[in-house]
Amino acid sequence: MEMNVCGLNLHNTVLDVTAGAPKQLLKEGLPQIALSGRSNVGKSSLVNCLLGRKKLARVSSEPGKTITVNFYLVDKSLYLVDLPGYGFARRSESDKRRWSNLTQGYFKDNNALCHVLHLLDMKVGITADDADMIAYMNHYEIPYTIVATKCDKLNKTNLAASAQKLVSDLRIRHGTECILFSSEKGLGREEVWTRIVKYKQ
Ligand SMILES: Nc1nc2c(ncn2[C@@H]2O[C@H](COP(=O)(O)OP(=O)(O)O)[C@@H](O)[C@H]2O)c(=O)[nH]1
Ligand SMILES: [Mg+2]
């Protein structure tokens, strides 16, 4: 695993802040690239893959119980921000409220946010909750790129076409790019890093 990408030393990565309440959120200072998506889309796995660490972010087959925003400080130069996942029907009303408070609190007046990587599982497609999240980002003019996760599960020959089809969905902002990704295979890791470094400027 390459641990020096785009001039960043990935050995120098720490989970700097875990925010469970809006007042704990960082919204200024170093540039932030946020990761959003439904629970189980492969967000923690992507964080681990990008940072070259097996267990920095907790991967689970169970829906995440903790609703927190995790700020990973990368080589003292940027934050990768892991937003809480959404879309679990079994979540209680109070959990949903906590999710909304924290997520909306994060986006509101955030001077450090540069770009969002929105994860979609290409096999699952755009769920109703994804559509809400995307509509929110469209409305507030938050810039985003789609990352199609778990691409190792799909037929290689159709990947590019499936990605194109995904981002031509009218609910996604016109002209949005889609990066094919697999944490399992490391596919797309370099491309995601290239975008992160480009967008953090
Ligand atoms: N086949 C495959 N499975 C993956 C990949 N990324 C994550 N998963 C699996 O999907 C499940 C949820 O992953 P996790 O990273 O915890 O998702 P999160 O809830 O979005 O943080 C786990 O069982 C992972 O092993 C991938 O690239 N390929
Ligand atoms: Mg997770």
Summarize the structure.
With 201 residues, this protein is an alpha/beta fold. Helices cover 28% and strands 22% of the residues.
Identify low-pLDDT runs: none
Helix content: 25-40%
Which CATH architecture is right? 3-Layer(aba) Sandwich
Query: Counting H and I runs of at least 4 residues, what is the number of helices?
Result: 5
How many separate domains make up the residues? 1
CATH class: Alpha Beta
What is the tally of beta strands? 9
Question: Element order, helices and strands?
Answer: EEEEHEEHEHEHEH
- Rounded mean pLDDT is 94
Question: Based on CA inertia axes, which overall geometry fits?
Answer: globular
Q: Report, as a whole number of angstroms, the end-to-end distance.
A: 25 Å
CATH topology, what is it called? Rossmann fold
From the alpha-carbon coordinates, what is the Rg to the nearest angstrom?
A: 16 Å
